Request: fold
Amino acid sequence: MTQLIFIALFPLIALIAMGYALKRIHVLDEPFWKGAEKLNYYILFPSMLFLNLATAHIEAKSIAQIMFVVGIVVTLASSLLYALRHYFKTP
Reply:
């Protein structure tokens, strides 16, 4: 099951790594990167994520496990944010 998720998400990980590497070696100037980051963040990345996860071949018996793990992660993240809310208050 983990392998299926990794295969579905690998193109996204590769895209992020490639963008990071290109920015670090200064292939293009800074104004280009500001526009490219917005385009990637708001349009391309969500579209690619949805497409990869929608076309991933996940067995029905794995869905219960995935939902359980997602539920635990969301619960832990929510609990952590709730506990830390006093430290990050905005005026």
Remarks:
- The chain has two domains: 1-58, 59-91.
